[in-house]
Fold:
Amino acid sequence: QVQLVESGGGLVQAGGSLRLSCAASGLAFSSVAMGWFRQAPGKEREFATAINNSGGKTYYADSVKGRFTISRDNSKNTVYLQMNDLKPEDTAVYFCARYMTGDYHAAYLPGSWGQGTQVTVSS
Structure:
């Protein structure tokens, strides 16, 4: 059974930083791409970033490019999201996602989701 458990969310002032973690179990972690999505109140869930199975390729939504960095440690079955220069519009629940392939493509849908972690950015 695949489990994705996010941690690291919280309240931060605008301009601050947070680091999210997602610990995965029940899957061949090093074989699959991983991603982060977010959902703000009253809005649809949206793609933020993804990383291929080896960590050699990363992908970012324009809204987070240059501020967020995704990384992974395959020895720890964990994917990270470093968020810098946070803005109030980054306030959302952040979800970790597991893809069914080794690389990311915008047409692919994740096969598994975490429960989400709240990130709140105050102005």
